[in-house]
Amino acid sequence: MNSLTANLVNAFAKEIYPVEISFDKKIISIKKLGNQIDSTLPFIIPGFVDAHVHIESSMLIPSEFARIAVTHGTVATVSDPHEIANVCGVNGVKYMIENGKKVPFKFYFGAPSCVPATVFETAGATLDSNAVRELLEMDEIKYLAEMMNFPGVLHGDEEVMKKIAHAHSLNKPVDGHAPGLRGDDAKKYIEVGISTDHECFTKEEALDKLKYGMKILIREGSAAKNFEALIDLLNDYEDEIMFCSDDKHPDSLVLGHINQLCERAVAKGIDIFKIIKAACVNPVLHYKLNVGLLRENDDADFILIKDLVSFKPLKTYIDGTLVAENGQSLINSVAEKEINNFSIDKINISDFRFEKKQALFNEREEIPIIEALDGQLITNKVFLQPKTKNDSLRSDTEKDILKIVVVNRYQKAPVAKAFIKNFGLKKGALASSVAHDSHNIVAVGVDDESLLSAINAVIEVKGGVSVAERETHVLPLNVAGLMSKEDGYIVARKYAQLDKMAKDLLGSKLSAPFMTLSFMALLVIPHLKLSDKGLFDGDNFSFIIK
């Protein structure tokens, strides 16, 4: 049996007082030592829970993600494995579960609800309602992951409704994904039993959904950042708000996790007990997780922190085991096999030619162009005049209009081409096999030669991210073209180097150029995206150019 003394932050009683806690794998006893905070003692709070995250976006397998996350006080994640499911199907989901079991960390996975996300792209697998039910019947699967097909919900699509019904029959919650949905449509979406949403980007949208009984996850990841827009909601909805990262790249994970949101919330003047509820308590109660909340007989999952301002973790415990101390992880790396689905050879420069006759011009000689927005997953649809030469469309660095392409990774097919604004590249190209949600290869560049080098570098290693400009640099992602088995800190360092090249060498002004690029093929987020089959209008849910 172990024991320690600290100031307990009791989010249920809304009190802080010194205690002596005895524990092994569970909390054996909590002895109150007084009524006033003891300034000589650290504070003890439940461990942080990321209420919605795609582990694959960290580019790390679960065991390596855990090694880093615990240094920031995270003890559990509610994880949607739909990235690897889109590549490798049910086997991919089971890969994540089994790898996660190899380390002392609490991964709670969902059954991906939308694989593929739409019929307008090519994925590596399909999960129908029978496959989803098979997953939901597993003890390790705690919920039906984000229902991105909100049009399918609103129109009563048979397969969509079967998946939701399977979750309800097993008493497992259903996560939502409905960016911009308001009013009667939001009400209808929620009333089928969809309980959360992490896609709100305005306070008004979140209030609309709260009104109909939905819980709101405040997201702050490497690409989508909604904290500033939504954090004030925690003042009035302490039981309905959770914190999540959704997608977090490895360099960002090394710097911090849910602890950073707590620090920022305190700086906004939010009540400490409400912050603890959002960061630690509410996800455990909503998803019925086997994670302790610092009560007698609970699992001994907790963290000691220096203060209630910086939330700097001193020690992290999971099931009574010390897993991190003073920023150092005590979890060892584990050996792991690889799983992948990559079936194309290198492509040719002629594949990138974009002839004028292939474009859709309006009466002002303009074409629809994707406008990327820093810190957002949504894009704008703008109409601008492209640069032309020899009857083909070219990138225009002066106007920041660059060619973007998507290459089918699962079979040989024509390359999809369009143009994008706001990447800011002055030379070279970026490519990535992390391209939500089907994970074909997406690339942006100022010339076809650079695009070719960047993409073929990714193809050669069967998945990865690359920078091409005179020389080509690539970070291989050998697990499904999404993740690396390498030490997480090494992966983070290598990724940070590529990120720096994209900004300093190529000229991108985006805060996370690779993360932004990875969402340019995500058709379920409006307004304009590019799949391997063509330019797609997310508002009308139809192709503009195929």
Q: Would you summarize the structure shown here?
A:
The chain is an alpha/beta fold and 546 residues long.
Looking at this protein, list some descriptive labels.
eight-stranded mixed sheet; 546 residues; TIM Barrel; alpha/beta
**Beta-strand fraction estimate:** 25-35%
Number of domains: 2
Distance between the termini: 65 Å
Q: Low-confidence segments, ≥5 residues, pLDDT <50?
A: none
Spatial extent as radius of gyration: 23 Å
The CATH superfamily of the largest domain is: Metal-dependent hydrolases
Number of discrete helical segments: 14
- Number of beta strands: 29
What is the annotated CATH architecture of the largest domain?
Answer: Alpha-Beta Barrel
Structural class: alpha/beta
| Named CATH topology of the largest domain | TIM Barrel
Provide the residue-averaged pLDDT.
96
Q: What is the CATH class designation of the largest domain?
A: Alpha Beta
Strand order in the sheet with the most strands:
3-2-1-4-13-14-15-16
Largest sheet: 8 strands, mixed
